[in-house]
Design brief:
The complex is a heterodimer of chains A (622) and B (284).
Chain A lengths: L7 E4 L3 H12 L4 E5 L7 H4 L4 E2 L6 H14 L6 H21 L24 E2 L5 H18 L11 E5 L1 E8 L5 E8 L4 E6 L2 E4 L20 H8 L4 E2 L4 E10 L2 E4 L3 H4 L3 E5 L16 E3 L14 H11 L15 E4 L5 H8 L8 E11 L2 E2 L26 E3 L17 H22 L9 H16 L5 H20 L4 H18 L13 H33 L10 E4 L5 E4 L2 E5 L2 E5 L6 H12 L11
Parallel strand pairs in A: 1-2, 1-9, 2-5, 9-18
Antiparallel strand pairs in A: 3-4, 6-7, 7-8, 10-17, 10-19, 11-12, 11-16, 13-14, 13-15, 15-16, 19-20, 21-22
Helix pairs in contact in A: 1-5, 1-10, 3-4, 4-10, 6-14, 12-13, 12-14, 13-14
Chain B lengths: L16 H7 L6 E8 L10 E8 L6 H10 L27 E4 L2 E4 L5 H8 L3 E5 L6 E3 L2 E2 L2 H9 L17 H8 L14 H5 L12 H13 L4 H11 L12 H5 L6 H23 L1
Parallel strand pairs in B: 1-5
Antiparallel strand pairs in B: 1-2, 3-4, 3-5, 6-7
The chains are: A alpha+beta (622), B alpha+beta (284).
C-alpha cells in the first residue's frame, strides 16, 4: 500500500453520496464508495416525497422557493448556499429526467407539480411515492460505468470501487490535523483497515435514531458524524430536528405517510373536542377541525410542518404512555378524496376501509449536523467550485446532505430533503476536485506503516471498550426514551436538567469496560456498541443545545442577532462543549467563525431595491 | 414454486399451531427459529445451524425474531453464541436489505409475519437462511454485487453523452411519459429475490436474470432507436441474455415490488427478434 493517494473516499451511498461519486467520476477523480449497505437500501431510496424546483428561468418562482425555505427554517439557513441550491434545482430536475426518472406527467406530457407543506405554490415534482427510489436507481446505474472504466492514476484500478458492508470508524489525521485517510471496518470479517485518501467526504445522512418516536432507519444512528465530532469537527444546531406531521405506527415502528397525499386530496383533521374518543368514521364533519383550513389559508396553501406538529402535539392524549404507541395519536388523515391507485401504492394493506387513517407526528430528520464552510461574495452569491464549499473545519474532510446543517435552518421543507442531498453532493464533489488539485505535490510523507499503526490503534481501542449486545440494547432504549422526553419537554428547564443528568449516567455506563465475555466476541456486538456510543453522544449533544437555546430565550427573549447558530465541539475530556466562535483555517488563511447567520443575499437585495426604487419588490403570497 | 429450493423445516415444539393461534393470548407458548450460520466470507467450514426458542406474541415479524435473538443470543439448548448477523435498514418493506430465505423462499424479513408461516406448515418453527445464489459474508448477510455485474453486462443505464441535445422533445420520452403507469408503480428495489428464485440461474449459468433485463428495458425505452439502445439489445441477445429465460414465472411470484418482469422479458425478446430480422434483411 502506498502512503499517498489521489483517490477520494465517499462515505455513504444515499442521494448525496451517489451524486458526489457521479460528479467526481465525471471529473476523472477515482472514488472509493463506502456504505453499510448497498445504495438501494439507503434511507434516500426509501424517501417518498419529491423535489421542489421552479421552472427553469422563472426568476419570480425561484425567489418564492427561496423565501418559503427561509421562512420554514426560521431564517436560520445560511443564505448563499441556500440560494445556490434553489437556483440549481431546475437543472437538477432536468438532469434526473434525462437519466430516466419517470416524474409524474399530465395527459399533455407536462410535469405535474405539487404543493407540499410550507410551499406557497405547487412546484415539487414526484415519481409517484417512489421519488427517492427512482433517483437512487438512476444515479446508481450511472456509477456502473465507472466501475468498469480504468482509473487514470492507476491502470489496474477501476475509477469507482465499492466497499459495501463497511463501516466508517474514524479519520486518519496527519500531524497538521489534516484528514489524509480513514479507518474502516469490514463488517463481515470485523477486520479494520486504514487507507490513505486525498480527501474524505461524509454523506452518511442525518442522525435521529436517538429519539424513541422517530421514523429513523436502522442506519440513521450517526456513528460517522459522532466519530469525526470526537476528532474535532464542529457540530451545529444539535437541538433542531425535523418532525413529520403524518406518521403511522406499524407493528411498533413509525413510518412516514407521504405529504404528497395531502396535495392530492387527503385532509388532516383532529376532533374539535380533545376528549372525543369516538371512532374517526363516526365523527361528523362539523365536529372535525381540519388543520390546513383556516382564516389565513388560501386555496392550495398548506401550513408548514412545524406549525402542524405543534397543533398535533397539542392534540395528543397527555395521559397516554410515551414512546410512540398508537393510542396517543388523535389526528386523522381523511383519504376519501385521494385516487385509489395512489393510496394503494402508498398504504397498501394499511388503508382502513373507512379511509380515516390515524396519524401523529414523529422525528423524521436531523436539521443539525456537521459545520460546513462555503465561499461567497459580498452580495451573498456563492462562489461555485470553491474548495471551501462543503468543507468541515477539519482540512480534507467534507460533508454533504443531512449529515451537515447549512441549508434548511430550524425546519426543512419536505420538497427540499432530496434536493439538498443532491445539490450538496454535487457541490462537495466540485470543491473536492479543487481541493485535491491544490494538494501539489500530494501528501507523501506518510508511509504504509503510519496507516497500519492507525488501524492497530482502532483495534485496540475497540477491543477495550464496553459490554456486549444485551447491555447495549437496554442502554439504547433508555437513551431513546430520554431524548424523546427532552424533545417533548419544550420550555421545561427542570425536566431538561433531569434528562441531562440521566443521559450523563447512561453515557458513563456505555463507556464502562467489558463486564462479560461477549465483548471479546467480534462482529455484531462491537458494531452495536459503536452505534450506541454514537446515539448516546447525539442525545447528549441534543440536550446541551436544547438547554442552551432555552436559556437564551428566557434570558433575552428571541435569539439575539449574531448569536443564532449553536456551535458545539468535543472538549479535551471528550465531553460536549458549546462555543461562541472557533478559528477556522481554510486554504491557508485563518478566519474566526462566530454564531451569526449569513443573510447577505437578502441584505444585498434590499440595498438593490433601495438604490433602484422602480424595481418591483418581491411579495410573498401570504 | 418448482424452482425454489426448499429446506426440510425444523421439527420444533410439538403443538398444533392452528389451535394455539386461535387461543391467541390465552396461553403462553414458544416456537423455534433455526438460523443458518457462517462466521465469515468463504468460511464454509463454519457453516452450521443454530436453533433458538422464542416466546410467541401476536404480530411478530421475522425481523422481530432476529432482534429478540440478538438481545439474548442463547440457543434452545442454553448455549450462548454470537448473535446472528443480518442486514436491515428501513424495516418497513421498502429497502430490500433484509431479503433472506424464510422457509426456503426469498422474503423480506421485516414484513414477513411469523403466524401465517407457521400456519402454512403447521409447525411451531421457522427456518432462516441466506440467499443461496450469492456468496455469504456472514450468517444471513450475502454479497449481492453479482447482481450489479449483471446490470453492467446489459448496460442498464442511460448514456447522457449519446442523447439528443434537447431531451424534452425526444419522441420516445413523450411516449413513456404518457403511459398511465409511468410513475405510479414501484421501481425495482434491488432485493435480488427474482435472481434467487430463478431456476435458470445457477453455478455455471450466464443468465443475467429478470431484474437486469427489466432495468435494461427501461433504458432501451428511453433511448429507443439510438445506437446506445441497439447496443443494449445486442447484449441482451447474446449469451446469458433473454433467450435463457425458461419462463418459469418464479421471478414474478416473488417480486416484492410486483414488477411485470415477465412482460419486460417478453418485450425485450420481441425487440431483440425485430432487430435480428432487421439486421438479417439489411445484410441480404
Amino acid at each position: 500500500m502506498s502512503g499517498s493517494s489521489a483517490r477520494v473516499a465517499v462515505v455513504g451511498a444515499g442521494a448525496a453520496g451517489l451524486a458526489a461519486a457521479l460528479e467526481l467520476g465525471r471529473a476523472g477523480v477515482s472514488v472509493d464508495l463506502y456504505s453499510l449497505l448497498p445504495a438501494s437500501c439507503s434511507p434516500s431510496a426509501c424517501e417518498r416525497d419529491g423535489l421542489g424546483a421552479a421552472e427553469a428561468g422563472d426568476e419570480a418562482a425561484i425567489e418564492r422557493h427561496f423565501l418559503d425555505t427561509l421562512e420554514a427554517g426560521g431564517q436560520l439557513a445560511h443564505q448563499p448556499p441556500l440560494r445556490a441550491m434553489i437556483e440549481a434545482a431546475p437543472s437538477i430536475v432536468d438532469e434526473l429526467l434525462r437519466l430516466g426518472v419517470p416524474f409524474d406527467r399530465d395527459a399533455q406530457g407536462a410535469l405535474v407539480r405539487d404543493a407540499l407543506g410550507g410551499a406557497t405554490e405547487a412546484r415539487a415534482v414526484h415519481a409517484g411515492v417512489h421519488t427517492g427510489r427512482q433517483l437512487v436507481r438512476v444515479l446508481d446505474a450511472q456509477l456502473l460505468r465507472f466501475e468498469e472504466q480504468a482509473a487514470r492514476d492507476a491502470r489496474s484500478e477501476p475509477l469507482l470501487r465499492r466497499f459495501e458492508h463497511w463501516e466508517f470508524l474514524r479519520l486518519v489525521l496527519d500531524d497538521a490535523g489534516r484528514a489524509v485517510g480513514l479507518v474502516a471496518r469490514e463488517r463481515s470479517s470485523a477486520r479494520h483497515v486504514a487507507r490513505p485518501y486525498a480527501a474524505v467526504l461524509l454523506a452518511t445522512g442525518g442522525a435521529f435514531a436517538h429519539f424513541a418516536r422517530s421514523t429513523a432507519s436502522l442506519v440513521s444512528h450517526g456513528s460517522a458524524a459522532a466519530a469525526v465530532f470526537r476528532q474535532g469537527a464542529i457540530f451545529v444546531h444539535a437541538d433542531l430536528v425535523e418532525e413529520h406531521p403524518t406518521t403511522v405506527l406499524v407493528r411498533g415502528r413509525r413510518r412516514v405517510v407521504a405529504e404528497l397525499l395531502q396535495s392530492r386530496g387527503a385532509r388532516l383533521w383532529v376532533p374539535r373536542d380533545p376528549s372525543d374518543t369516538r371512532a374517526p368514521e363516526t365523527v361528523p364533519a362539523a365536529e372535525r377541525r381540519y388543520l390546513r383550513e383556516g382564516a389565513t389559508a388560501q386555496a392550495g396553501d398548506l401550513a408548514g410542518r412545524a406549525e402542524l406538529v405543534r397543533a398535533l402535539r397539542a392534540a395528543l392524549d397527555p395521559a397516554a404512555p410515551q414512546g410512540g404507541s398508537a393510542d396517543e395519536d388523535r389526528a386523522f388523515l381523511d383519504l376519501g378524496g385521494v385516487a385509489p391507485a395512489l393510496l394503494e401504492a402508498e398504504l397498501g394493506e394499511l388503508l382502513p376501509a373507512h379511509r380515516q387513517l390515524r396519524v401523529g407526528p414523529a422525528v423524521s430528520g436531523a436539521m443539525g449536523g456537521l459545520w460546513v464552510d462555503y465561499e461567497a461574495d459580498e452580495r451573498g452569491q456563492l462562489v461555485e467550485g470553491s474548495p471551501r464549499n462543503q468543507a468541515t473545519n477539519i482540512a480534507g474532510l467534507y460533508a454533504a446532505g443531512e449529515v451537515g446543517f447549512q441549508l434548511h435552518g430550524a425546519a426543512r421543507l419536505g420538497e427540499n430533503a432530496l434536493l439538498g442531498c443532491l445539490y450538496e453532493g454535487k457541490a462537495a464533489a466540485r470543491a473536492i476536485v479543487a481541493y485535491t488539485r491544490s494538494l501539489a505535490p500530494p501528501p507523501d510523507a506518510l508511509d504504509a506503516s503510519f496507516f497500519e499503526r492507525r488501524a492497530r490503534e482502532a483495534d485496540e481501542e475497540l477491543a477495550s471498550q464496553g459490554d456486549g449486545a444485551r447491555a447495549a440494547f437496554e442502554l439504547c432504549e433508555a437513551v431513546r426514551r430520554c431524548a424523546q422526553r427532552a424533545l417533548e419537554a419544550d420550555g421545561e428547564p427542570a425536566l431538561l436538567a433531569a434528562c441531562a443528568e440521566q443521559l450523563d449516567e447512561l453515557d458513563a455506563r456505555a463507556r464502562e469496560p467489558a463486564a462479560s465475555d461477549a465483548a471479546t466476541e467480534p462482529g455484531p456486538a462491537a458494531s452495536k456498541l459503536h452505534e450506541l456510543r454514537a446515539m448516546s453522544l447525539h442525545a447528549r449533544l441534543f440536550l446541551r443545545a436544547r438547554h442552551a437555546r432555552l436559556a437564551a430565550a428566557t434570558a433575552g427573549g428571541a435569539a439575539s442577532p449574531g448569536a443564532e447558530l449553536l456551535l458545539a465541539r468535543a472538549s479535551q475530556s471528550g465531553d460536549v462543549e458549546l462555543v461562541d466562535a472557533f478559528e477556522h483555517v481554510a486554504m491557508g488563511s485563518t478566519r474566526r467563525v462566530d454564531r451569526s447567520v449569513d443573510r447577505r443575499y437578502t441584505q444585498a437585495g434590499a440595498a438593490r431595491e433601495g438604490a433602484a426604487p422602480e424595481a418591483p419588490p418581491v411579495e410573498r403570497d401570504r | 414454486m418448482s424452482g425454489v429450493r426448499r429446506e426440510q423445516p425444523a421439527p420444533g415444539p410439538a403443538i398444533d399451531v392452528a389451535s394455539a393461534l386461535a387461543r391467541a393470548d390465552e396461553q403462553k407458548w414458544s416456537f423455534r427459529v433455526r438460523v443458518r450460520r457462517q462466521d465469515g466470507p468463504a468460511d464454509t467450514r463454519s457453516r452450521r445451524w443454530d436453533e433458538f426458542e422464542l416466546p410467541w406474541r401476536p404480530g411478530l415479524s421475522v425481523h422481530d425474531c432476529l432482534e429478540a435473538i440478538e438481545r439474548d443470543p442463547r440457543t434452545a439448548r442454553g448455549e450462548r453464541v454470537r448473535a446472528p448477523a443480518w442486514d436491515a435498514s428501513c424495516v418497513e418493506g421498502r429497502c430490500g436489505a433484509c431479503t433472506m430465505l424464510v422457509n426456503g423462499r426469498p422474503r423480506q424479513a421485516c414484513v414477513t409475519l411469523v403466524d401465517p408461516l407457521m400456519l402454512e406448515t403447521n409447525a411451531a418453527s421457522l427456518e432462516l437462511a441466506p440467499l443461496s445464489k450469492f456468496p455469504v459474508l456472514r450468517d444471513l448477510v450475502v454479497d449481492r454485487s453479482s447482481a450489479r455485474a449483471a446490470l453492467r453486462r446489459v448496460k442498464a443505464w442511460v448514456e447522457l453523452d449519446r442523447e439528443p441535445a434537447e431531451p424534452s422533445v425526444t419522441p420516445s420520452r413523450r411516449r413513456l411519459a404518457l403511459a398511465p403507469t409511468a410513475g405510479a408503480s414501484s421501481p425495482c428495489i434491488g432485493c435480488a429475490a427474482c435472481l434467487e428464485a430463478c431456476p435458470e440461474l445457477h453455478a455455471g449459468s450466464l443468465f443475467v436474470g429478470a431484474a437486469s433485463i427489466h432495468e435494461a428495458k427501461l433504458a432501451v425505452d428511453l433511448q429507443a432507436g439510438s445506437p446506445a439502445a441497439d447496443e443494449r439489445l445486442d447484449a441482451l441477445m447474446g449469451p446469458g441474455g433473454v433467450a435463457e429465460c425458461g419462463k418459469s414465472q418464479n421471478c414474478v411470484e416473488v417480486c416484492p415490488a410486483s414488477l411485470p418482469l415477465d412482460e419486460s422479458i417478453a418485450s425485450v425478446a420481441r425487440a431483440a427478434t425485430k432487430r435480428l430480422f432487421g439486421r438479417w434483411f439489411a445484410r441480404r
